[in-house]
Amino acid sequence: MKRSLNHPMNRGVERHKYICWVNQVIAASRGRALNYLDKFRVHFYLDARHSHEVCSWVQFALEKGAQHLELNCFQGNGSKKRRNCSFPMLQPGPLSSIGQLKSVSLNQVSIDSEKLDRLLSTCKSLETLRVSWSHALTHLEVVSPDPLQLKSLELSFCSKLETVVITAPTPDLVSLHCHGSERGVTKLHLKCAPRLVDLLIGGCRDIARLAPQPSLSFYLAQLESLSVTLQRKIYPRVPDGIFWRLPEMKNLKHLTVLVDDKNYYYKDLYDVNFLIRKAPFLEHLTVHARCCMQFQDARRRKLKPKHPLQHLRMAKYVGFRGFRGDEQLILHLLQTAVSPEKLIIDFQDPMPL
């Protein structure tokens, strides 16, 4: 018999059953039956009321030497919004194998800056860290002379996140995704990330604030993939001073841009055009468009590419609604390439970066 968990009553009953079932499995596994655990995953409707259970489960996973930890404590649509369940403060101990963790993924789990710093400083073998929808996280600062083994770091939709500073060497870091709210990430600093090739900067203010920072500009030149959000209601007349400092990104092959002009009437293609000009060897361009009702024709004509990209083969437009602005932006994408091979027009709603 199928029952929808979107109904609060069904969800409460099934949640109780789920917690009891997990506790039973853990109790049965504390003996000799299970001496080693590679991966521990929790996917269910859990919130702050169940933090004690979640903490005990994490402790069990560490005792069993888990290398991969994943907590997805989503609350679902239509439910009364509650605080996220809390991630424990990790404490190395004789029974704990914290140092063996290689990947941690936390979705709608509350972890503050102190706990996250402890996680990174304690888990020396950590290669992948994903934290999403944690509203307790305000900053990440890792200050250490010892190198981290991180290969991928993703901090997404953490509404209070403002600062990301990693002075510890990250010689293996390949991918960095930071997404702030409308306040945006005001500071992003990496001391040593020679292999960084994939960067996502989300949030409507982030690109305007971060572009002038020397640390970020240094790494832009080595990127192969870049994703940014542009929202002109925050800076309606962006002067060249913000973007001209960006280096030429000769290694960039994939560029994804979210054009979010909601609630602002003055629209043009200034930022999109400028970013494209900075990537002469671009191969794939994706534009996610929100509320692009109409671009000003005069501005569009002035921004017609003087030097179309020789290597651009595919352009993708997500969020087509049939508005005049959609048609103008698609035409601009075609004019950007010398010999485009594929144009994809997607009618789905654009996703936030």
UniProtKB/TrEMBL annotation:
InterPro entries: At1g61320/At1g61330-like, LRR_At1g61320_AtMIF1, LRR_dom_sf
At1g61320/AtMIF1 LRR domain residues: 95-347
Annotated PANTHER family: FBD DOMAIN-CONTAINING PROTEIN, OS02G0105600 PROTEIN
Name this polypeptide is given: At1g61320/AtMIF1 LRR domain-containing protein
Originating organism: Punica granatum
Lineage of origin: Eukaryota, Viridiplantae, Streptophyta, Embryophyta, Tracheophyta
